[in-house]
Amino acid sequence: MKKWAALTGVMLVFLLCASPAQAQKEKLAQAGFQFLKIGLSARAEAMAGAYSMVGDDADAMFYNPAGLSRMDARFQVTAHYVPWIADIAFTAFGAAYKSDYGTFALDFASVNYGDIIGTQVAATEQGYSETGNVDVGSYYTGFAYARKLTDKFTIGGQLKYVSEHLGSSLISPTGTATQTVENRASAVNVAFGTIYYTGLKSLQVGIYIRNFSPEAEYQKTGFQAPLTFDIGVALDLMDLYPGEQPSQSLVLALDAVHPRDFSERVNLGVEYWFQDMLALRCGYKFNHDMEGFTAGIGVKQKIGQTGIRVDYCFSRNDYFNNVNRFSLGVSF
Predict the structure, then answer these.
(1) Rounded distance between C-alpha atoms, residue 46 and residue 269, angstroms
(2) What is the pLDDT of residue 5?
């Protein structure tokens, strides 16, 4: 009876969260630092980003720092590469250390926007002249901490310094000479997450709040970071059937996402592990403007005391080229 109650609960949450996702898109262009919204982990994004309750390794620092406390190794490092659309590329690195006082983690991510040619108005046949490559780029660096308060309740927090540079501009204030102004903005972001084991099989629920920060500004124009609130649910479906399945797991995860600058979204993902060595994943992002179906594969192997994990993700993009993600993790 309990197994059907657990499954019914998960489906009810999905239905309740999916309903508002069909609403009209009313909240647009209300946040800056848009690069913070791009998922980096191949494992997480293969599950359509429904990872806030699933993370149990160093990648959790990118999705819900509370998951860092579930690391099965003392020390882990992780690296991600995402060739995004329009020649934009993301690179990220993270390291986590588990101690008797909790789990500590550091991460760094940067964005390469490719070559962008600057122009200015000129008396030429084209009406403009080129000014060379524009210096643009974004990055953030952060510190995270997670701890188990009880055997059922875990918390985690993260502090990030975010910076973005969008080239320079030439301005000519009235009565003054032309000036060069750098288009640079920065802010300190805070994230906080929880994970709660309900005691009903492996069912776990929690919340994750990210990109909470004071207002940043370019010149005299202020803007907010893409504040996002997630409610997550995850369950190993193998727990619903009699008999132990020690060599397999089939995790169903759902994240209901409430962003500052878009209507509600739902991320639904599945991860199947065989012998804790091979993982198959798929998912779907509901009510996203570009993304939808995702899928991926992961391989994990231990060599002596060193664990190695390689993950790949394919994300379908409805308007640009499809996106491939690559991740590498090493644990000691």
Answers:
(1) 8
(2) 44
